[in-house]
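Researcher: Next entry in the queue.
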Amino acid sequence: MTPADHGELATGRLHAIAWKFLGSEFAGPIYANWPIDRRVEACLLHNGFKDVVNDGGACNAVLQCVMANIGRALRDGRLSPPQDRYDPDGSRPQGAPPRMAAHEVATYDDGRAA
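Model: Structure for this entry, 114 residues:
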């Protein structure tokens, strides 16, 4: 990819590719344990953007655009917020650390300090 092509990516394809990632399964909970750069690269390869993956500068530009738009994607509802480990009724899963206010000392149900 020549510098001119990279400029076209930055102005044209860059946002489209970044938003394609933000709307994909690679941005969701299935791949949440993967580092963000690996998830972006996997999405690029899955969608046939091998030329972008092979151009380190272009791949980095896509990653930076993704990072810059995560907040907007959350606000627009394209991304789901991270799941709370607690049920909506406030109960805790077995072994989960307790909830506490900032001034409280956390303890488990049996009285041990957390």
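Model: DSSP finds four helices and no strands in the chain.
Researcher: Noted, moving on.
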